[in-house]
Known about the structure:
Strand content of chain B: over 45%
Shape of chain B: globular
Number of strands of chain B: 11
Number of strands of chain A: 9
Largest sheet of chain A: 6 strands, mixed
Structural class of chain B: mainly beta
Oligomer: heterodimer
Helix content of chain B: under 10%
Number of helices of chain A: 0
Helix content of chain A: under 10%
Radius of gyration of chain B: 13 Å
Radius of gyration of chain A: 13 Å
Order of helices and strands of chain A: EEEEEEEEE
Number of helices of chain B: 0
Amino acid sequence: QSILTQPPxxxxxxxxxxxxxxxxxxxxxGSNTVVWYQQLPGTAPRLLIYRxxxxxxxxxxxxxxxxxxxxxxxxxxxxxxxxxxxxHCAGWDDSLNGPVFGGGTKLTxx
Amino acid sequence: xxQVLESGGDSVQPGGSLRLSCAASGFTxxxxxxxxVRQAPGRGLEWVATASGTGGxxxxxxxxxGRFTISRDNSRNTLYLQMSxxxxxxxxxxxxxxxxxxxxxxxxFYMAVWGKGTTVSVSS
Lengths: 110, 124
């Protein structure tokens, strides 16, 4: 069972805005920054968002991240078919002294 | 171009050993911490171990502490993961990932570049 909690699935239609959540506790999201990874089918994860809302070069600004308290969100606007993937959140946990992950949300573009 | 390539995955019996390697190129290897992350079939990601840029500091998840050893050879731009006393639950794809700094901390814990992974299967 993952330390961070993500809904197992989400869906949206092309052009829509979709928001995925990630819930943690005071020892992780509540006191540290959040990261999001995108994992396209059959491929390795790719860094999508770091430090809550920072995008690495090459990541479209359709992707945005936010954090409030012990929860974080990843929003995708102008949804495209190529966005269909698993999305994993991660954070540093002060109690475990290392990174922890959510179980991942599988995004389906209808 | 930044590249990270894992190798060494195999099928082994419970209690066996295996060494994974990760060859990196396209950047100054010793300047960055490197991490092993694994993904069991149909499951989420799990942090395994991290080595700082110099290799002088290493960090392990509780699930592998005492059984796995992470190391690096900065002269060969290569990261290693020595796995021993393997268990069925160690079965997973093992990814090697480059950090964004030479250190590993709550500020620099994320993995900026990932390899394609190598598969480890532990079964009798």
